[in-house]
Amino acid sequence: MKFPVVFLVCSAVSFGAIASSEYQHFKAIPSETLTEAICNLQRHQPMLAELVNQPEMSAEDMVKIHELTYTLEMALQRIEVELEQAEEQLERVHVGSERMAKDDVKANASAYLATLKPLLMAPDCQ
């Protein structure tokens, strides 16, 4: 009885490895800064929208969508990191204002404002 179970498990594992090797993984366009992340979203969101809003999507369209998701995911991850950083900076502003620590408030508020500036001022993504 052990042989069929072991055989089935091995077959399932090898089938999964074969199936996953059918998908090509693409290199994402990096989003090293918040500005790059916003620009990558601005450039690639319309491409995704165009592909998914067609009446029919071909296999080639699905490959293009798959490729786009790598860059979009990287951009969203960068935005998430930057927003977490801004949240921490703003919390330091909040705590500093409670303690009347003017220098801390100024320094942390400046960092907070600089972090979010690309998000609030649409960058030139030419």
Task: Describe this entry's structure for a reader.
The structure is a single chain. The chain has one domain (28-120). It is mainly α and 126 residues long. Residues 4-21 have low confidence and may be disordered. The protein has helices at 2-21, 34-52, 59-99, 102-120. 79% of the residues lie in helices and 0% in strands.
Secondary structure: elements and pairs:
Blueprint: H1 2-21, H2 34-52, H3 59-99, H4 102-120
Helix pairs in contact: 2-3, 3-4
Shape: elongated
Class derived from helix and strand content = mainly alpha
Helix content: over 70%
**What is the ordering of alpha helices and beta strands?**
HHHH
Q: Which consecutive residue ranges, at least 5 long each, have pLDDT under 50?
A: 4-21
Beta-strand fraction estimate:
under 5%
Rg over CA atoms: 23 Å
Number of helices: 4
- Number of DSSP strand runs: 0
* Global mean pLDDT: 86
How far apart, in Å, are the first and last alpha carbons? 65 Å
Main pleated-sheet profile: none
Signal peptide: 1-19
Keywords: Coiled coil, Signal
Coiled coil: 69-96
